[in-house]
Design goal:
- The chain has 145 residues and is α+β, with helices and mostly antiparallel strands.
- The chain has four helices and five strands; from the N terminus they run E-H-H-H-E-E-E-E-H.
């Protein structure tokens, strides 16, 4: 269960420099069509960056590493192209806490433009319990545990 101090209204800001591996042709180098795409921040990678910003904000309120947080919903726009090397500034706000579920509003800007806006949900999980379920699922699928 999240800490009682983790309540709606928490605001945060985080910066992240976009690495070369985050642009479309690099991130999806195993997909032929993507290798010809412009070298701009991939939308999927952007979603991950926004998730990380939210995680950074709540980390002090979790009993880490026993409690961790996993993303369960992303709903973001991708408004502007960002080249590798530019720095994103992410601002967010925790807007709802319902049980173990946390909902955020998040926006991001690069050096010149607003890049993204949207919502994100995370669930606080017990690490050991989560890993037990994952091992069980992997075993049922015949995958290495």
């Amino acid at each position: 269960m999240p800490s009682p101090e983790l309540v709606p209204g928490l605001t945060f800001e985080w910066t992240y420099r976009v690495p070369k591996k985050a642009v479309v042709p690099e991130l999806y180098d195993d997909v032929e069509l993507c290798r010809d795409m412009p070298a701009v921040l991939a939308t999927g990678y952007l979603a991950g960056i926004l998730e990380c910003a939210c995680l950074q904000a709540i980390r002090p309120y979790l009993d880490w590493p026993r409690e961790q947080s996993l993303g369960t919903l992303v709903s973001f726009s991708h408004l502007a192209a960002t080249p590798a090397g530019d720095t994103l500034r992410i601002q967010g706000k925790l807007v709802d806490v319902t049980g173990r579920t946390l909902r955020f509003e998040v926006e991001a800007w690069d050096g010149l433009d607003k890049v993204s806006a949207g919502t994100h949900e995370r669930v606080v999980v017990d690490r050991a319990r989560f890993h037990d379920k994952l091992r069980e699922k992997s075993a049922r699928l015949g995958l290495p545990v």
